[in-house]
Specification:
- Keywords: Cytoplasm, GTP-binding, Hydrolase, Nucleotide-binding, Phosphoprotein, Protein biosynthesis, Translation regulation.
- One of its GO terms (biological process) is spermatocyte division.
- It holds the Pfam family GTP_EFTU.
- By secondary structure, this protein is an alpha+beta fold.
- Among the domains are: about 45 residues, no CATH class; about 220 residues, Rossmann fold (3-Layer(aba) Sandwich), CATH 3.40.50.300; about 80 residues, Elongation Factor Tu (Ef-tu), domain 3; about 110 residues, Translation factors (Elongation Factor Tu (Ef-tu), domain 3).
- Helix content is about 30%, strand content about 25%.
- The protein is built from 18 helices and 22 strands.
Length: about 675
């Protein structure tokens, strides 16, 4: 056992009288720990090593430089550095300030820190922010100084991570122009350095008066082929599509269990788009599971989970042809948990079918507050769909009652009018998806034929108006899916919102502005050489990393890039909210197929729903059924357009905790 001291009664003065090894002192005062030697400065050793260091570096510098008189810290370099430190940026308006900042960043990326801030700013303002003229002037000025005997600091062309230092030859000085700079670049042939992802520098468009597209994003110009640059898309569209049937995308929406998938499956079967053999297979398999009534729904609900749960979970696609149209059917999920999928499908739609269940109690549960009948109708109208066909399904369960039909029509008419649909753009059709009554033929059932002599469902689809396609606008496409193709490269799918796309075209990808080339494209698994606005296509891209493309990002025209920002203003209509919207309110932003976290960072004004007049500036909160101008800020930079420029890309939806709380239109991009 160890011996313990009695510390309570110990006299510490007596205890340490004979001790020399007091804490903090060595046993021998003349002895220094070997490890301390490295921290002690020896004057003689220091002078010797310093002179050796200077001599060694001088020899290295003499070997590296042909001219012994050159010194990196010469008078010119010091002057440039002093000018940059003492110079203050001039006070300009927002547009000029954005252009100036962009020019300064462009020049810095080429010449580094060799030129003073003052000279860059003065040159930029003198040449009205023309980056080509600015670079030519600065580079030629450096060359002229060299010809006169003034040796300025070397100009570093920081165009790539592996950039090399380039200096003009000494015997025959050459004129350095922007073409010399372009030859030093690697990768894609572009006319100016690639814009960074930061939206506050040069990654976003410079705002111009009136939204003129020619002035958009003037600081980033990407080279494309001559054919792509001079293409007349309207003329090409007329040549290729004039003899073909017009195409529309129709989304089928409604409350869960309203019979949407069964209705569309039976319609596909009656129009000959599903073989008798496949239908017999579905019938036998559904019988085994005791779900024979789902046999038509299985035409569109193909996954095992959808069939086991008896509900649609993702947007199913199929195609039918009428006398004058090719219709792409989009079967949207009705369950509230899959509304984000429904929104993604609705952004691709031109027209919509709203399916309601005529069974007593079922219609009421879907139509009352919290049901998806109301929410789906509001969502598709907010996303730009203005033609709606209302299908009153399962009318056979109420004995083809005319009174029940008129009751449902009366309730829906007033609601749809409030939602923004015109009465002339809405039709009401009674039918039964399970029996096939009034789908492709006029009413045959005596109970229905007795009081209804209107069009059948296929006739309603036939009379939908084809919306005007923005073919002659710059190319824009939202990515809805990404997958590995069978050949080289990878494939993306989505709907062309505006413009046209051809094989071998160059495009830009998302907020990174990475350039890619179209290797091939197809529509409904058929290879095409070109596609136009309104087409749902699959594209094989080359020259871009698959990891840099995500669902929801925008593919767009290099000649007219899309604005990139993290903050924008929009005009929103607030629906039913439990908690009033205030500054700092977190939301999920839905833009096309993109779902991005965002924050309400500013409440600009409350406005009147009809007139748009400002009711109150800077309100403290927004309640339900209100209309307001707000600013949203996203966690990362996104591609977005103003509604006045591109209606297709200027709409947003705001959702919180699985509920859609607002819909809006982008009015200003910061």
């Amino acid at each position: 056992m160890s011996r313990h001291r009695i510390v309570r009664g110990m006299d510490y003065n007596d205890e340490y009288d004979g001790y020399d090894d007091v804490y903090g002192h060595s046993v021998d005062d003349d002895c220094v720990s070997p490890t301390d030697q490295q921290w002690l400065f020896d004057r003689t050793r220091g002078q010797h090593s310093m002179s050796a260091f200077i001599k060694k570096n001088k020899n290295i510098q003499e070997e590296a430089e042909d001219d012994e008189d050159y010194d990196e810290e010469d008078e010119e370099y010091q002057k440039a550095r002093r000018d940059s430190e003492n110079f203050q940026m001039p006070e300009l308006d927002d547009t000029a300030q954005a252009k100036l900042s962009s020019c300064v960043d462009e020049v810095r990326s080429v010449v580094g820190d060799a030129v003073s801030e003052r000279r860059i700013v003065e040159t930029s303002m003198r040449f009205d922010y023309d980056i080509h003229k600015i670079l030519d002037e600065i580079l030629n000025e450096e060359t002229n100084n060299k010809d006169k005997g003034k040796r300025p600091p070397m100009l570093k062309l920081n165009t790539t991570p592996a950039a090399k230092t380039i200096t003009a030859p000494k015997p025959t000085p050459t004129k350095i122009t922007l073409s010399t700079v372009k030859e030093a670049r690697r990768g894609f042939d572009i006319a100016s350095p690639k814009a960074p992802a930061s939206p506050n520098v040069s990654g976003r468009n410079t705002p111009t008066e009136g939204g003129d597209e020619a002035g958009r994003c003037t600081n980033v110009i990407f080279k494309v082929s001559k054919d792509q640059a001079q293409r007349n898309t309207q003329q090409l569209y007329d040549q290729e599509r004039s003899s073909q049937k017009s195409q529309i995308h129709m989304i089928v929406i409604g409350h869960v269990d309203a019979g949407k998938s069964t209705l569309m499956g039976h319609l596909l079967y009656d129009t000959g788009n599903v073989s008798q053999r496949l239908m017999h297979k579905h019938e036998q398999e559904s019988k085994k599971l005791g779900k024979q009534s789902f046999m038509y729904a299985w035409v569109l609900d193909e996954t095992g989970e959808e069939r086991a749960r008896g509900i649609t979970m993702d947007v199913g696609q199929s195609r039918i042809e009428t006398k004058t149209k090719i219709v792409t059917l989009l079967d949207a999920p009705g369950h509230k948990d899959f509304i984000p999928n429904m929104i993604s499908g609705a952004t691709q739609a031109d027209v919509a079918l709203l399916v309601v269940d005529a069974t007593r109690g079922e219609f009421e549960s879907g139509f009352e507050l919290g049901g998806q009948t109301r929410e789906h109708a509001i969502l598709v109208r907010s996303l730009g769909v203005n033609q709606l066909g209302v299908v009153i399904n399962k009318l056979d369960t109420v004995g083809w009652s005319k009174e029940r039909f008129l009751e449902i029509v009366h309730k829906l008419k007033s609601f749809l009018k409030q939602a923004g649909f015109k009465e002339s753009d809405v039709s009401f059709t009674p039918c039964s998806g399970l029996t096939g009554e009034n789908l492709t033929k006029s009413a045959q059932e005596p109970g229905l034929k007795a009081w209804y002599d209107g069009p059948h469902l296929l006739d309603v689809i036939e009379h939908f108006k084809v919306p005007e396609r923005a073919v002659n606008r710059p190319f824009r496409m939202s990515v809805t899916d990404i997958y590995k193709g069978t050949g080289s490269g990878f494939c993306i799918s989505g709907r062309i919102e505006t413009g046209a796309l051809c094989v071998n075209d160059k495009v830009l990808v998302g907020a990174s502005r990475e350039q890619a080339q179209v290797k091939s494209l197809s529509i409904d698994d058929l290879t095409q050489t070109s596609a136009f606005a309104g087409d749902q296509i699959s594209v094989t891209l080359g020259g871009v990393d698959m990891n840099n493309i995500t669902v929801g990002c925008i593919i767009y025209d290099p000649q007219v890039p899309i604005p990139i920002t993290t903050r924008f203003q929009c005009r929103i209509i607030v629906f039913n909210v439990k908690v009033p919207i205030t500054i700092g309110y977190p939301v999920l932003l839905h833009h096309q197929s993109l779902i991005e976290p965002a924050v309400v960072c500013k409440l600009t004004a409350s406005i009147h729903k009809s007139t748009g007049e400002v009711v109150k500036k800077k309100p403290r909160c927004l309640g339900q059924n209100s209309c307001a101008l707000v600013e949203l800020e996203t966690s990362r930079a996104i591609c977005i357009e103003r509604y006045s420029d591109y209606k297709e890309l200027g709409r947003v939806m705001l959702r919180v905790a699985g509920v859609t709380i607002a819909a809006g239109m982008v009015t200003k991009i910061r």
